[in-house]
Specification:
The protein has 249 residues and is an all-alpha fold. It contains eleven helices and no strands.
């Protein structure tokens, strides 16, 4: 995974970049303000000046990354050249360039699911790598006892939930355009078999969150193939039933 803070434009971004690198190198339990300061190319005392402690800084890092991702999909499309949004422009670091979205909706869904349960298999420079998935799991674990982390991951789940809803809706529309003939296709006839994009997105998000925790906390990856086969089978059966003409909630 490329360093999203390779070219910081201000002190805040430089500090967040130092925190990002220190976190990926040492993990949550072993990262300290001192170790973050060691990654900072200016006076480490500036880190203490801007943040009250490690968690204050890491929550700001999470918020910044999420802000940039949300901006990158804010134009209403998640596929094709128009999906790059504000990312990579102006004075922000390149978080989600056009190439990251230049894939079909189904391909992006596959990438999202693979990143959760088998990040080592991804070769995309902008995809999460093993270390990033591990530290994100560590940070999410803090939400069990820290309200600030819980608030962040509440927001993160909402942002990614809407992103996944749009991907699901676009993937279903692609199937309909390709002339898939599935009995009771909810995308076209509104039958009782129809499902909403939000239902499918919630299922995928729950699978991915659980998959990340299992991947990051076990050594035996034999389950990955079966888990992916199961969720892929679910998508193949469900995407043709998704309502594609409803408004986003």
């Amino acid at each position: 995974m490329n360093d999203p803070f390779a070219e910081p434009s201000d002190t805040r971004q430089a500090i967040l970049g130092a925190a990002f690198r220190a976190l990926c190198e040492h993990g949550y339990a072993n990262v300290t303000i001192q170790r973050i300061g060691d990654e900072f190319d200016k006076s480490p005392s500036l880190v203490y000046h801007h943040y009250d402690g490690k968690d204050d800084l890491l929550i700001d890092l999470l918020s910044f990354l999420l802000d940039e991702f949300e901006a990158s999909i804010a134009d209403g499309s998640v596929t094709g050249p128009s999906a790059d949004g504000a990312a990579g422009e102006g004075d922000v670091p390149e978080m989600a360039p056009e190439e990251a979205f230049d894939r079909s909706a189904r391909e992006q869904l596959d990438g999202y699911l693979t990143a959760a349960v088998d990040p080592a298999s991804l070769e995309d420079a902008y995809a999460p790598d093993e270390r990033f998935v591990t530290v994100m799991t560590e940070l999410r674990s803090q939400a069990a006892s820290d309200e600030a982390y819980r608030d962040h991951f509440d927001r993160s789940d909402r942002v990614f939930g809407k992103y996944l809803e749009r991907l699901v809706r676009e993937a279903a529309a692609d199937i309909a355009r390709d002339g898939a003939e599935v009995a009771g296709n909810g995308a076209s006839d509104g039958s009782s078999d129809a499902v909403t994009a939000s239902e499918v997105a919630a299922t995928l998000q729950t699978f991915a969150t659980g998959g990340m925790f299992r991947w990051a906390t076990t050594n035996d990856g034999a389950w990955v193939g079966d888990a992916r086969a199961g969720i892929d089978r679910y998508l193949e059966a469900t995407l043709p039933l998704v309502e594609t003409n409803g408004s986003e909630k």
